[in-house]
Amino acid sequence: TSLKYIPNITILDLSHNHLDEQGVRYLTFFLQQCQSIITLNLFNNQLSDVFLAEILAAFITPTSQFSSDLASTSASFTSSRKRGGGSRGSVSGGNEKRIIMNNYFETSFFNQSVTDLNIGRNTLAAASSEVLERVIKQNVVLTSLNLEGCFKLVPKAFKRITEAIRLYNPHITRLCCDALPLSVKSCEYLGKIQGKSKVTRVRVLSMSRCNLTSVHVKHLSKFLALSTSVERLDLSANPLTDEAVPSIVDILLRQV
User: Fold this and answer.
1) What is the pTM (predicted TM-score) of this model?
2) Taking CA atoms, which of 45, 84, 118, 255 is between 20 and 30 Å from 174?
3) Percent of the chain predicted with pLDDT > 90
């Protein structure tokens, strides 16, 4: 709680920790109050879906409809936890719903300062991916988003996130998708982020260690080759062969 008394703090690095229920609640309150933080690094905290959703909701304007939607998602999550047992980074029973409701919807404060957000290696699943989609649609200051190693991110949710960037957010210029289980369709969604969009301005796109093949890159290039804004494309540490070269060349020629 002493963090709220440091008015000039701009970088908060909490990577490689294990935030529990109390830590998440304090962090959420701090983010809602503090408007000086520019960089927030939560990489590898093994946050549960609900805990991550709670933190992300600190970046958007609370609404009654959002309260209802997230409470419903949380209730479903609670029910599934009861059937499947607990895990580190989660809370049991009806506590998840209580935490989310108490921390957000009793206040009108939300963070409008963070531009660089790293939530890699956490459980980005049903509840948190929905909140992230809303963050992307509403937040006008976020410029860098790191999703590295969020293995629970399913293609359907990934599509909604990329579409939110493409259609609503011209501010995100750096997107890290390293070590994500990207499908061929997911690569197509990433390509469409740029494509013929007049909104998106993503300049740095990282897809390292995603187990990409020439087929993945072909679908990526189909749309990404239409863009002229990409300045850096990281495809390192993927099992790419010579078959991927023509697709990569198509992308590069467009950037010249």
Assistant:
1) 0.82
2) 45
3) 62
